[in-house]
Automatic annotation (TrEMBL):
Designated name of the protein: Peptidase
Gene3D superfamilies: Clp, N-terminal domain
Residue stretches making up the Clp R domain: 2-185
InterPro entries membership: Clp_N_dom_sf, Clp_R_N
One Pfam family from the record: Clp_N
Entry keyword set: Repeat
Length: 187
């Protein structure tokens, strides 16, 4: 599948590996892909984010992703559902961090590079983003998978990354409006 990725989409994947390694994560998660996507400049995905006003709010998005990671990736919708059952996620996180330290629920391993120097594998959510990006590109009849397809994939998948993007008005419809399909030139 990666042979169909544009250089911008490949750069997002490389950046995601970097974020996972930097955080000591055992797997590349969807949030790592989104962080790497936020770093891009001069690409179709970065253009869409800029037009939708997210380029100047990158730090707010990064903070929201960090907070969600502290909650072990539980979305606000999931936390609200648990609250309806009498389970206070914030209280659980506070208690775990009191005993084990800040970020204990994130799954990150700090500086312990337990994978022996190899790059971390992709987690289920990251694989879902990559697979959905392929499906989005096929549905739009685009020949290659660009970083805009990754962005579109985030907007249709459940999870923290999509929730954070939606909070800032980055939806499938909005991205499609500012980033239409690429049509090959006819010659």
């Amino acid at each position: 599948m990666f042979e169909r990725f544009t250089k911008d989409a490949r750069a997002v994947v490389e950046g995601a590996w970097g974020y996972a390694e930097q955080g000591g994560a055992g797997t590349v998660d969807a949030e790592h892909l989104l962080l790497a996507l936020l770093d891009r400049e001069g690409s179709r995905g970065s253009f869409a984010l800029a037009v939708l006003g997210l380029a100047e709010r990158r730090e707010v998005v990064r903070d929201a992703l960090r907070e969600a990671r502290r909650r072990a990736g539980i979305t606000r919708a999931e936390a609200d559902a648990l609250a309806g059952l009498g389970i206070d996620v914030a209280q659980i996180v506070a208690r775990v961090e009191e005993v084990h330290g800040v970020g204990a629920m994130s799954g990150d391993r700090g500086d312990r590079r337990w994978w022996g120097g190899r790059r971390p594998n992709f987690g289920r959510a990251a694989k879902d983003v990559l697979e959905r990006a392929l499906r989005v590109a096929l549905a739009r009849r685009d020949r290659h998978i660009g970083d805009e397809h990754l962005l579109l994939a985030f907007t249709v998948l459940p999870g923290v990354a999509g929730e954070v993007l939606a909070d800032h008005g980055v939806t499938f419809e909005a991205v499609t409006r500012v980033c239409p399909p690429v049509r090959p030139a006819r010659g």
